[in-house]
């Protein structure tokens, strides 16, 4: 059922993490703050829980109104897994890393055509379609490590691409609009509530199209084709009978299989949410490993020497990390994240998922700095 956190004046908080997962006190305090807000009905906290800017990350929140702050700025951020029609054994990591660098630049194809085919309205942010973005976003070339459910039909010899990205400037503009209005909760039946959900749903579909185009660009760079395995958003809101179910860093458990990624130095897991999972989980599961240390504190922990920074461009599986932004390389180091195995273990222990397969990272693309930018950075 999960552990019930009973706090006076709070909506019920069900937690789905054990003592082996690192949970900051600040994240728990944010959970309690959220649960105290008027109209909040229930909160579910996942094992990847950590503090966020507008509230906790790694949770689902059921409320009688729409709370844009609960979704945050990167509306539609999520994970998409694609199978490539190319055998993993033929991949030469260094060569693949060099080819994938090309997708860090803006898409030079027909963006308008991609927008039209995705059934999206034109927006001021469409030039960013097909780009990864910053922070913890990435495009990762992967190989199957282990298949736990053979009948799932995964080809263990194929290469795969996992994309983590969102709606880029579109989602940020939506939150800015709500911030300027005071971030007040919105009645789902009001004009403002309907307007927010219309813009929210546009951002979700834009983010899905963005991940697809990133994968297509990666496949093109590797001279192969990509086929979608699964896609989901972990920053979103949906209307339901009780009001609105918000997910902030929480993957849906009611839409099929989900990838729960580890850090760039760890395995990622394809999982299948279980029918009959505890209702207190609010049809949600963890979205990743979750941060152990915030970005600011990482600068003093690692990367002080050139050899240490070079170490960060490789992973324990012999793979490459393409990240030419020194600060980002350190902020997003594997040491910044919790153990993905501990997160998955908790999801299994609480009856939320079963593991379908695990994937190891071959090439993780984060950030490419063009030669001219490097020159400017030295001035």
TrEMBL record:
GMP binds at residues 136-140, 234-235, 268, 287-290, 366. GO terms for molecular function: GTP binding; metal ion binding; RNA ligase (ATP) activity; RNA ligase (GTP) activity. Binds 2 manganese ions per subunit. It comes from the Bacteria. It is an enzyme of class 6 (ligase). It holds the Pfam family RtcB. Mn(2+) 1 binds at residue 137. InterPro entries: RtcB (IPR001233), RtcB-like_sf (IPR036025), RtcB2 (IPR017510). It catalyses: a 3'-end 3'-phospho-ribonucleotide-RNA + a 5'-end dephospho-ribonucleoside-RNA + GTP = a ribonucleotidyl-ribonucleotide-RNA + GMP + diphosphate. One of its GO terms (biological process) is RNA repair. Mn(2+) 2 binds at residues 164, 234. Its cofactor is Mn(2+). Its EC number is 6.5.1.8. The active site is at 287 (gmp-histidine intermediate). Keywords: GTP-binding, Ligase, Manganese, Metal-binding, Nucleotide-binding, Plasmid, RNA repair. This is 3'-phosphate/5'-hydroxy nucleic acid ligase. It comes from Methylosinus trichosporium (strain ATCC 35070 / NCIMB 11131 / UNIQEM 75 / OB3b).
């Amino acid at each position: 059922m999960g552990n019930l956190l009973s706090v006076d004046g709070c909506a019920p908080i069900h937690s789905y993490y054990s003592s082996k997962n690192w949970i900051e006190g600040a994240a728990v305090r944010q959970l309690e703050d959220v649960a105290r807000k008027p109209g909040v009905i229930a909160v579910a906290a996942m094992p990847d829980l950590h503090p966020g800017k507008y509230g906790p990350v790694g949770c689902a929140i059921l409320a009688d109104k729409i709370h844009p702050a609960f979704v945050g700025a990167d509306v539609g951020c999520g994970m998409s897994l694609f199978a490539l029609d190319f055998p993993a054994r033929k991949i030469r990591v260094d060569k693949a890393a060099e080819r994938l660098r090309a997708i860090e630049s803006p898409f030079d194809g027909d963006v308008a055509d991609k927008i039209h085919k995705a059934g999206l309205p034109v927006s001021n942010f469409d030039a960013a379609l097909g780009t990864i973005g910053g922070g913890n976003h990435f495009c990762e070339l992967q190989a199957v490590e282990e298949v736990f459910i053979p009948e799932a039909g995964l080809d263990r010899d194929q290469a795969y691409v996992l994309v983590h990205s969102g709606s880029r400037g579109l989602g940020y503009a939506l939150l800015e609009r709500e911030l300027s209005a005071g971030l007040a909760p919105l009645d789902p039946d009001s004009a403002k509530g309907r307007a927010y959900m219309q813009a929210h749903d546009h951002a979700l579909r834009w983010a899905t199209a963005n991940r697809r185009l990133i994968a297509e660009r990666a496949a093109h760079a590797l001279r192969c084709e990509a086929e979608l395995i699964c896609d989901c958003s972990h920053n979103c809101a949906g209307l339901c009978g009780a009001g609105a179910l918000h997910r902030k860093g929480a993957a849906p458990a009611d839409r099929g299989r989900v990838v729960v990624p580890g850090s760039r130095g760890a395995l990622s897991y394809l999982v299948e949410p279980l029918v009959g999972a505890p209702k207190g989980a609010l049809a949600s599961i963890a979205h990743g490993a979750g941060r152990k240390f915030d970005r600011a504190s990482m600068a003093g922990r690692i990367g002080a020497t050139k050899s240490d920074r070079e170490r960060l461009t490789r992973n324990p599986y012999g793979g490459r990390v393409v990240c030419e932004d020194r600060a980002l390389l350190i902020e997003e180091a594997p040491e910044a994240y919790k153990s993905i195995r501990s997160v998955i273990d908790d999801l299994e222990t609480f009856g939320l998922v079963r593991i379908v397969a695990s994937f190891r990272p071959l090439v993780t693309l984060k950030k490419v700095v063009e030669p001219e930018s490097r020159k400017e950075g030295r001035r």
